Amino acid sequence: MVNDLSRRSFLTRAGGAVSAVWLSAHWPAIVAAAEHAHQAAKSSAPGKFQFFTPEEAAEIDAITARIIPTDQTPGAREAGVVYFIDRALTTFAVGDQKTYRDGLPSLQARVREVLPNVDKFSSATSEQQDQVLHTFGDEVGPGARNVRRRGGGSFFATLRVHTITGFLIDPDSGGNRGGVGWKVIGREPEHMFQPPFGYYDKDYAGWQPNPPDAEKSKA
Amino acid sequence: MTPDLPKYKTSDEVDFVIVGSGAAGGIMAKELSTNGFRVVVLEQGPYLTESDFVHDETKIIGEDLLTNKPKLQPTSFRKTPSEKAKPQRAVVYGRCVGGTSVHFTANFWRFHEIDFIERSKVGAVPGADLRDWPITYADLEPYYTKVEWEIGVSGLAGASPFDPPRSKPYPMPPLPVKSSGVIFERAARKLGWHPFPAPMAILSQPRAGRSACTNCGFCLAFGCEVGAKSSSLATAIRVAEKTGRCEIRPNSYVHRIEMDSNGRVSGAVYFDDKRNTHLQKAKAVVVCANGAETPRLLLLSANKQFPNGLANSSGIVGKYLMLNSGGVTNAVFEQPLNDYKGFAVSRLIHDFYELDHEKVGFYGGGGIDARFDFTPIGFAMGGLPPGTPAWGKVFKNTLANNFNRTMELFCHGTSLAVETNSFSLDPDLKDAWGLPALCLTYRDHPDDLKLWAWQFLSSSIQATSDR
Q1: Across chain A, what does the average pLDDT equal?
Q2: Beta partners for B280?
Q3: Residue A139 maps to a domain
Q4: Does the B49-95+105-230+319-463 domain belong in CATH 3.30.1050?
Q5: Predicted-complex ipTM score
Q6: I need a surface site. Which of B57, B172, B280, B404 has the fewest CB within 10 A?
Q7: Within a domain: residue A90?
Q8: Which residues contact A184 (CB under 8 A, 6 or more apart)?
């Protein structure tokens, strides 16, 4: 088992949460998508949009497919993220409608600026699409916890949050169609589990007491 | 589920009004009502129950279903009193019946003996104001035991050599160990430290009509849909309601404690959900509105006789705020830990609870626990290594690889008492009811930052100790 541990790959995040104030706000700032209850956000038949026009939906779908691309495993497109976002904008995320209304034309302007020979985002190649999206680069930050303020976020930052949400939300909550997002990240679909949970606890020999004469040595 | 409630009229002078229904308010409601008193609990949030506790991250976290609402209840923040505070989310607390105990991690450590006698044992710390408590650990020990047995705490007595004395073991065995706990335990032992099963206020066995933990994986920040988390909602509140003498009145936002001409409290003034104002008469008011709203309410209740607010002859209401410092180190392993299954924490160490300040050069201490407290969306937003792209193929692949291979080492540390660290009333910012918003003033004491750096180093050493 010690050898298994020695293959531990790498140490990652060096706690950004220095301040106690940051700590108290540690988890809640992460998903800023919603304002109202949204049982309405259940799956509807593909192809029917309530907020987007079919043309707009094609553009949004193309962007979500670059945020979480399809490769050997499903991406945002297979999870039906564009449908999740469409429903979100008419239910619990109505406050973000303007961000999309203003954002789509500005995206179009960026496409024309970066790709003079391409008429719209969805008809560009993947490489070209990434090129356009990289112009938003500084708006989504380094992938840190503070994604954006509630409401009034930039178009791409908002779309990124909505895409991730639509890909990874509990499938019972109206996104993550077929649970494909959870499959991709290795989250089993059940909501009830029994130990052993993972590789490192499956051969656990059981609790062994600390030495009884353990010296309470201070550092 | 709610039995026949006594619907006290606001004009009925009940024995006690309790403001807040969380860890403190719930216990007060239970103790007072089971001892024959007539009690009204005024809770600003809604009365949610198990069926409301879904696993929808947008609803629970994005919409703050269980917590204070930043849009209705804005707050402000500044580092020092000389600054103008800026609107910012400064505090998160449970805003529902059961309060923060509904969504908390459920870590359930006791204080140690040193916590009560720091000043006399350590002496003065420059820039801080250490004081001894007026009671000792021994005074409190019977009550720790009572709480552990009444609400249900899982743990293993005697497993930590640093544990203070206890009169009774835990009422039930520890929760199962997670992969993060096994890795942590092995690394800690290798370093000569003393890991032990985390005491958690989560049932490892069925108890009092409540289910044992089903390891659903939506624990921190979520309410427990099977009642396994030993919140006030799942425990004390239900006992209180069964007496027939305690009314839990949700959606009741207390904003003033009323006082008569003799300077005696006569009741609590609150808004109902339609923003109508009521006065619930009472012989006594117990303020259990958490560390932020309690001082705010006392300050909001200032009157002619007490212009600086109630219970504030000392002038220190809201001051000397101690938040608990902390830092997180993540590690990613080759094989799946699947640490998303279950509660957050299964092992911890207290080897650094009481550091030798002369040796390390600063005052403080704490514990380090092994955990995974992310849910899927939260992990994608905040659990990836620094420098990971925010979108695209590498983002997706890192997410796919790391989600079930990541664990966290969470360092809990001292926050020294500093007078200027405080909650106060913002002079300009108002909440949706037109009342002064909470202002948080906070700057870490230099020793708190040294402790943080020291703990971070220790946890990193631990994370790499089997290299």
Answers
A1: 76
A2: B268
A3: yes
A4: no
A5: 0.92
A6: B172
A7: yes
A8: A73, A74, A167, B396, B399, B400
